[in-house]
Design a protein that fits this description.
By secondary structure, the protein is an alpha+beta fold. The chain has two helices and five strands. It has helices spanning about 1-10, 25-35; strands at about 20, 50-55, 55-60, 65-70, 75. The strands form two sheets. Strands 1-5-4 form a three-stranded mixed beta sheet, covered by helices on one side. The chain has a two-stranded antiparallel ribbon with strand order 2-3. Strand 4 (about 65-70) and strand 5 form a beta hairpin.
Length: about 80
C-alpha cells in the first residue's frame, strides 16, 4: 500500500482514480449507477468467450464490462 501511494505521488496523482464493482446485472447497474453518479455514457467493449480450465475441468468464461466516468473518476462495472 505504501509503495502504491509513493508511485501515485511520484506521478502527481492523489485520491481514487477508478472504482470497480462486480454486479449481477450489468444493464441494470449501468442505468442505476449512471443515474446516481452522473455517468453520461458507458463504453461496453465486446468481450469474446474464452475456454479455460479450472480445477482440471474445462469451463467457458464470458466477461462483460462497462466503463464510464463520473467526473474524473473512472467507474468500471464487471
Amino acid at each position: 500500500m505504501a509503495q502504491a501511494q509513493g508511485v501515485g505521488r511520484a506521478l502527481g496523482l492523489s485520491g481514487a482514480l477508478q472504482l470497480g464493482y462486480v454486479v449481477d446485472d450489468i444493464d441494470t447497474a449501468c442505468r442505476r449507477m449512471g443515474a446516481r453518479l452522473g455517468v453520461g455514457a458507458w463504453y461496453r467493449p465486446r468481450v469474446v468467450k474464452q475456454k479455460l480450465v479450472f480445477e482440471a475441468r474445462p469451463i467457458e468464461h464470458k466477461l462483460t464490462i462497462a466503463v464510464g466516468y463520473a467526473g474524473a473518476i473512472q467507474i468500471e462495472l464487471i
